[in-house]
Design a protein that fits this description.
By secondary structure, this protein is mainly beta. The protein has 3 helices and 19 strands. Helices cover 7% and strands 67% of the residues.
Length: 500
């Protein structure tokens, strides 16, 4: 590029490569993890109500539905997620790993007047996605932070539940305030209506490096989340859950950070879900669930406060249909569930190098456009079994089979003059055609006096991976086949709880 040093030109390309790398991540798993870790409270299952439907677990906690604890409790929780580690013979490496540790206390009070529970917790969270290749390009997305949380849940007049929390988040460059409030109105035992409001912040960073040049691209936005939900029991055999969730991502009201680079996102996320559960023959149950949603977003790239690029539009849409059958007895439980998941996404925009060159070169079309389209279909079949033990503990096991068919195409080009014409057009296709894998899970809970020990381990095992055909190494002019070794797919969770 005219007037642009090779290192700076690579930096411009690296920003686009960062978007490509992020768009290629396994969003089906990683997206839910990020939403839960960034916006949730990371409370253990013993504290969060099990009355929430299977469709919504792992998302935001509804504190107004918390069960009433019989006494004070102190809990500790550790989660380690070794999602992906990949290395190719072409020098490419990729790693996704997360960890979170939580300690807290929940104290009930006011049992005779306004039954309530107040809790205090501390969480340390580390989210990391890293990518590098043989061209000395390195990307790292994520960040580490600490959350200090105070939360409350109370019953009023036996028909209204109120809940709320205040969270103080400690980041490397300061503190952030987050808060939420929720009300659940249930005039009859058959069900009720609820509304929750949450205001928080998205503060992640994308670190990129090309040879000896690089920078940090903060991704900062204020997030407002609203949820409307309805619960109900019909004819004593049917349970219904309906919920609509809305998120808005807005530029932070504060000044742009002092970092060289910054991405300021703006967008809307929505999700609608419903689940119907039916019990029959005393110990049997069946469920049917549907979920859909999407994200429409845009963003601006800044260099020392001045814009040099834009994500014109980012679109992400998904839908899923699920059903299951379960058997429950006083000492054991067995279930089988099936889910079909559809995903589509697209991204387009441009990055120009004017922060590094004079105005005359900007008029000559010194910018790079990018456009990406992708999607995936996933079928999931899950079997679970749990058994109570004589000691009062419980053992649980599960097996989930995944069949994934992804698709994707990424294009980049430069204009000939101003914004007209096309040159240096490049096209990248997804190398993965389909994949099958099995997730094996084993967990348990063991009580000892006033202590409850719990833990679970999960391992993802690839069964079949099919990639797009490439030129064989022996073909004239054919490039050597790239060998890729992958590891990961391991998830660990351990907990200790003391009941007074």
């Amino acid at each position: 590029m005219l007037g642009l040093s090779p290192q700076k030109g690579l930096l411009q390309s690296c920003i686009i490569a960062a978007l490509l790398a992020l768009s290629a991540q396994p969003k089906i798993v990683e997206g839910e993890i990020l939403f839960s870790r960034l916006l949730g409270l990371n409370l253990p299952a013993s504290v969060v109500s099990d009355s929430m439907p299977e469709t919504n677990r792992g998302f935001l906690e509804h504190l107004s539905l918390l069960p009433r604890p019989t006494g004070p409790r102190v809990f500790c929780r550790l989660i380690v997620e070794d999602v992906l580690r990949s290395r190719g013979s072409d020098g490419r490496e990729e790693k996704i790993e997360n960890s979170i540790a939580t300690v807290g206390v929940a104290i009930p009070f006011g049992q005779n007047y306004t039954p309530s529970v107040i809790g205090v917790s501390f969480s340390g969270v580390d989210l990391a996605t890293r990518y590098s290749n043989a061209h000395e390009q390195k990307l790292a997305y994520g960040g580490a932070f600490s959350d200090y949380v105070v939360w409350y849940r109370g019953d009023f007049d036996s028909r209204v539940n109120f809940a709320g929390w205040f969270k103080e988040r400690k980041l490397a460059d300061g503190w952030q305030d987050h808060y939420s409030a929720e009300i659940y109105f249930h005039p009859v035992r058959a069900g009720g209506l609820g509304y929750s409001y949450c205001r928080t912040n998205l503060d992640q960073s994308l670190t990129f490096e090309v040879r000896d040049e690089g920078g940090v691209l903060p991704i900062e936005a204020e997030v407002v989340a609203e949820s409307y939900f309805l619960t109900g029991r019909l004819l004593k055999r049917f349970s219904l859950w309906l919920e609509a969730v809305r998120y808005s991502f807005e530029p932070s009201t504060g000044q742009l950070s002092a970092s060289q680079f910054e991405l300021v996102p703006d967008g809307r996320f929505r999700q609608e879900l419903g689940e119907l559960t039916m019990s029959f023959f005393g110990r049997w149950s069946a469920r049917l669930a549907y979920k859909q949603g999407g994200l429409d977003a845009s963003g601006d790239f800044f260099y020392y406060g001045q814009k040099f690029g834009k994500v014109t539009r980012g679109h992400f849409a998904f839908s899923s249909v699920a059903g299951g059958l379960g058997f429950h007895s006083p000492t054991r439980a067995l279930s089988v569930d099936y889910e079909h998941f559809d995903l589509s996404d697209s991204l387009r925009g441009h990055v120009q190098s004017w922060p590094f060159v004079s105005a005359i070169f900007r008029l000559l079309g010194d910018r790079t456009y990018f456009r990406g389209i992708g999607g995936a279909r996933m079928d999931k079949l899950r079997f679970t079994y749990s058994q109570d033990c004589r000691s009062g503990g419980k053992l649980a096991s599960g097996m989930t089979y995944f069949h994934v068919v992804p698709s994707g195409e990424w294009q980049t080009w430069e204009p000939l003059l101003f914004v007209f014409g096309v040159k240096n057009f490049k096209r990248h296709l997804s190398s993965l055609v389909e994949a099958d894998a099995i997730l094996l899970s084993l967990g348990g809970k063991y009580p000892f006096r006033n202590l409850d020990f719990s833990g679970s381990v999960s391992q993802l095992i690839p069964v079949h991976v099919k990639k797009a055909e490439t030129s064989p190494p022996s073909a004239p002019g054919g490039a050597p086949a790239v060998r890729v070794t992958t590891d990961g797919g391991r998830f660990y969770e351990f907990g200790i709880e003391y009941r007074f």
